[in-house]
Amino acid sequence: MQSGNSSLRNMMKNQHADQRMGAAYGPYGQMTQAPQVEAMRIDDVIVRTVALVAATFVAAMVTWSMVYPNLPPEGAEFITAEQQSALNTAMTLGTIGMFVGLGVIIFSMFKPITNPFVCFVYAIGQGLLLGGVSAFFESRFEGIVVNALLGTVLVFGGMLALYKFRILRNSPMFTKVMVGAGFGIFALIMVNFVAGMFGANLGLFAAPGESVSAIQWIIAIGITVWAAFSFILDFDMIEQSAAAGAPKKFAWAGAFGLTAGLIFLYWNLLRLLSYFQGD
């Protein structure tokens, strides 16, 4: 089986490579050098995921505290120099976080993220971006951040329960559909991002408060549904890896994949909820 998360897919590929290397040691009693590799457990993934999510939250609080109190009230004609400075700092940190996160995600498509430093850099970078953007949304639509966070937790818990009780299971066809859709979504987001950098609006995503077109509703709902169902692939991959005795370092790859999935789901729920507010 493959995961829709590139980091987890690569994790499985590297596991098979480690197993082939292990065969070179020979049968027990004839080993030239006994391998000393501690196996990964599901608990290891859970602990690391909690740590990465906590780092994301703490970083988000940094830019939130800069943005939310300093946003001018609606209709205000000017803001103080101190407020502008705080907003500029938050914007700089958020931009750095955005590019760091994008770089790590692209890197994870080619190699699993097993280095805890890289995992935390990603989590903190995304947190800095999340905090500022969330503060802006909250200033426009009161209560939207709490609802998006609650929705993220409920969706994740629901998908975990569906997987745990085998109501939803992975399959080769499910994997192909999810992976194919994942590449399509990534391409769509990147095209929109590049176009935005050059000042072009492709009309794929509505800005907060704008009227939402039918295609924008379809894209937002489709991506959110994909983000939710992608957890089934990730749970399956982590379970298989633990059962196969993957090296403990790959617990970081599993934790990175789940953290990235949670952040992506939150982003899309935040956008989708803003559509309901603005329509």
| Number of helices, counting only DSSP H or I runs of 4 residues or more | 8
Q: Summarize the biggest pleated sheet.
A: none
SSE topology string: HHHHHHHH
> SS-based structural class?
mainly alpha
Name some characteristics of this structure.
single chain, 0% strand, globular, 279 residues, mainly alpha
Write structural notes for this entry.
- The protein has one domain (6-12, 38-70, 80-278).
- Helices cover 73% and strands 0% of the residues.
- The protein is built from 8 helices and no strands.
- It has helices at 6-23, 42-67, 81-108, 116-140, 144-164, 172-197, 214-243, 250-278.
Concise overview:
The chain is mainly α. It is built from 8 helices and no strands. Helix 1 runs parallel beside helix 7, helix 2 packs across helix 4 and helix 4 packs parallel to helix 8.
Secondary-structure map with pairings?
Layout lengths: L5 H18 L18 H26 L13 H28 L7 H25 L3 H21 L7 H26 L16 H30 L6 H29 L1
Helix pairs in contact: 1-7, 1-8, 2-3, 2-4, 2-8, 3-4, 4-8, 5-7, 5-8, 6-7, 7-8
